[in-house]
Amino acid sequence: MNKELILQWTIISDPQKYVSDVLVAEAGDIPAEKINQGPWFVDTVTLRDITIDRRMIGEHDLDPVHIARRDDVIASIRAGHEIKPLIALGEELFLVDGYARYRALQKLRVERVQVLRQRMTKK
To answer: From CA 116, how far away is CA 19, in angstroms rounded?
Structure first.
């Protein structure tokens, strides 16, 4: 991790509500039963443990709007502003919200990140 960079993560007091609100607004293609499959909590993981949609990353890396979002996140982090945790589904930590933050964190060489994830119950 970039040693002089200190990340300020937004505190999410109700992860279940936050995730539901964000995913309904940002990722309407994710079924409610998947979102409600297990309780959500904040965790710290290595960035490389997050599974991404490589096609989406490729598209974002070519899109001026997404490039600007990524660069805004980088500037915000460097200025010491809070950053929202990434949101990832399932045991595989599939990233469903936060691609601009993900790319910004990669560019800044951040190794450990906060993620909202589900506690999966055994059936």
So the answer is: 8
Provide the domain limits for residue 19: 8-118
For 36-68, letters b (16+ CB in 10 Å) and e give eebebeebebebeebebeeeebeebeeeeebee
Q: Tens of pLDDT along 49-69?
A: 999 999 988 998 999 999 999
Decide: residue 88, CB within 10 A, 0-12 exposed, 13-18 middle, 19+ buried: buried
- On whether residue 52 sits in a domain, the answer given is yes
At residue 123, the pLDDT reads 52
Domain for residue 2, yes or no? no
Q: What global pTM score does this model have?
A: 0.89
- 44 domain-assigned: yes
* Residues 38, 42: Cα–Cα separation, whole Å: 13
pLDDT tens digits along 84-108: 999 998 889 999 999 999 999 999 9
Q: How far apart are CA 97 and CA 85, in angstroms?
A: 9
